[in-house]
Amino acid sequence: MIFPGGGGGFDSRVVVSVVWCLMVRSAGSLHQSCRMGYQFKRMTADCKDLKLNQIPMNLNHGIEILMASENRIRELKNETLEAYPNLELLYLSNNFINYVEPAAFRAVPKLEVLDLGLNGIRTLPLELPLPLRKLYLNGNRDLEKITLTSAYNLQYLSLAECHLSQMPDIGELPHLTELNLTDNPLTKITARQIAPLCRLNKLHTPDILYTQHKDSCECHEFQHWVKKFKIATTAPIECSNFSEVKLELCLSANRTELYEIRNTCLDRKPPLNLTSPEILSTAGCALLVVILVILCCLWRRSRRKQNTVRDNQKKQKVTTVV
After folding, report:
1. What is the rounded (10 degree) CA torsion for 105, 109, 112, 116?
2. Mean pLDDT of the chain
3. Do residues 65 and 36 lie in contact, with contact meaning Cβ atoms separated by under 8 Å?
4. Three-state DSSP class for residue 218
């Protein structure tokens, strides 16, 4: 074989290139496996920046933390997380995720933290784990609609840098205390939009908020609401000066409805959250109780029949003797 470089001899550059390619390929194969360890006393799989197209299925099934950010994952299917029922923290930021199937998180009922930042997500499933406390959706610029009502225990939500022109209807979240809406082209947020977030105490707002709507009732209503319920905003809310009469008209227009929304949120009870084994156990206990009740009824009915027969026999004997 003749290599480039003249004559019939070997070209050292070709040899070096071949060796280099083999080394790179070998190094790449070595980095395709996730690193196992412990963080915060929890079993952890570190799969960051491994050019993965999907979440590996062959990790230890007992992992509680999975870090798979900076990969090439494009979707989360219903079966994607089935192998890891003990997951509590899941980090999937900076991937290419643009689709999440409806039951994708059903397999992880213990999930507390979910980071889906910097992806292409448009919407999330209606079904989210009940223990979920923190949800990061920042940097999803195609986000269209998200309803998070099922995330009853959610405390922190980031929707920063999502290119939102209006605040989405995220639903009633009775335990949400912090909401990040920074770096969005939001010019206004209304009291009606945050009334279902009845325990909110910190709101990260865009700098341009109400710069174009200072003379609106919505500005005064929102300003009054955040002051009334001590919600700290990262940007000042400045509204135009209104007369006392006009201000009272603005604040009283929706007052009853807004308080009803907030009170409904405060009174909301957690949904029943039973895992499959618990459901089977509960159903089994209920079935057992039903069977016992039926057996008891049958036994009492049988006893009554026996007593009736015995009484009739006694009457017949008495009649015969007479």
Report:
1. -10
2. 86
3. no
4. helix
